[in-house]
Amino acid sequence: GAGVSQSPSNKVTEKGKDVELRCDPISGHTALYWYRQRLGQGLEFLIYFQGNSAPDKSGLPSDRFSAERTGESVSTLTIQRTQQEDSAVYLCASRLVGQETQYFGPGTRLLVL
Amino acid sequence: AQSVTQLGSHVSVSEGALVLLRCNYSSSVPPYLFWYVQYPNQGLQLLLKYTSAATLVKGINGFEAEFKKSETSFHLTKPSAHMSDAAEYFCAVSATGANSKLTFGKGITLSVRP
């Protein structure tokens, strides 16, 4: 079956612009996660969705970051007023409730100039 | 709180040699432990996981890892390296329960010399 997909695969933007990153999880996976991978660093947790609600937003680095999920499916991560330090690969993962494994998408590579 | 330590950022082995990638974790609750591999410009792929069953876990591509609670370790091994094993390897820990967010180590880049 289809895996986790993310779009766009690459995004170049100018400092101060807003960007939206999209994640399509595996069908039926109600748990969804966003992570960030900055150059030379490990992956950082950003936010966790169970269904359409986000019980854990503890990893969002500032109020410029927000995310939503609709229909227990697609999720959008929005970064407002982008800064150069937001440059990173943003990874989405989904998980079937009751299972331990998170399945990752290919990521969106964001470059803020 | 949970954390993962992967010592060193780069390991180089000869083709056919033993691969040993170290991972130590800290967790206040019984953990789940994972090794993921990331090939260039690709997402993460699960190699293997420990979920409180057998302490010696076998994964894909000939990799295995042993959970040692007394040492808080989950080292990844492969008896004989192949050129195709060159990639970045991440160890991760999660708590059990609904959230199960992953806490990752910084990753280790494995190079394989011909």
Number of strands of chain A: 11
Question: What share of residues of chain B is helical?
Answer: under 10%
Mean pLDDT of chain B: 92
Q: Tell the overall outline of chain B.
A: globular
Please write the string of helix (H) and strand (E) elements of chain B.
EEEEEEEEEEEE
* Intertermini distance of chain A: 37 Å
Judged by helices, strands and strand pairing, the structural class of chain B is mainly beta
How many β-strands of chain B, per DSSP?
12
Oligomeric state of shown chains: heterodimer
Strand content of chain B is: over 45%
Strand percent estimate of chain A: over 45%
Largest sheet of chain B: 6 strands, mixed
Shape of chain A: globular
Q: Characterize the largest beta sheet of chain A: strand count, sense, and whether it forms a barrel.
A: 7 strands, mixed
Query: Which parts of chain A are unreliable, with pLDDT below 50 for 5 consecutive residues or more?
Result: none
The most extensive interface, with participating residues per chain, is: A-B, 26 and 25 residues
**Helix segment count of chain A?**
0
Helix-strand pattern of chain A, N to C? EEEEEEEEEEE
Structural class of chain A, please? mainly beta
Radius of gyration of chain A: 13 Å
Structural features, described:
The complex is a heterodimer of chains A (113) and B (114). Chain A is built from no helices and eleven strands. With 113 residues, chain A is an all-beta fold. The mean pLDDT of chain A is 94. In chain A, the strands form two sheets. In chain A, strands 2, 4, 5, 6, 9, 10 and 11 form a seven-stranded mixed β-sheet that branches. Chain A is globular and about 40 Å long. Helix content of chain A is 0%, strand content 50%. The relative contact order of chain A is 0.33. Chain B contains no helices and twelve strands. In chain B, the strands form three sheets. In chain B, strands 2, 5, 6, 10, 11 and 12 form a six-stranded mixed β-sheet that branches. A four-stranded antiparallel β-sheet of chain B has the order 3-9-8-7, with no helix packed on it. In chain B, strands 1-4 form a two-stranded antiparallel ribbon. Chain B has strands at 2-5, 10-14, 19-21, 24-27, 31-38, 44-50, 56-58, 64-68, 73-78, 87-95, 103-104, 108-113. In chain B, a hairpin with a 5-residue loop joins β5 (31-38) and β6 (44-50). Chain B has 114 residues and is an all-beta fold. The chains are: A mainly beta (113), B mainly beta (114).
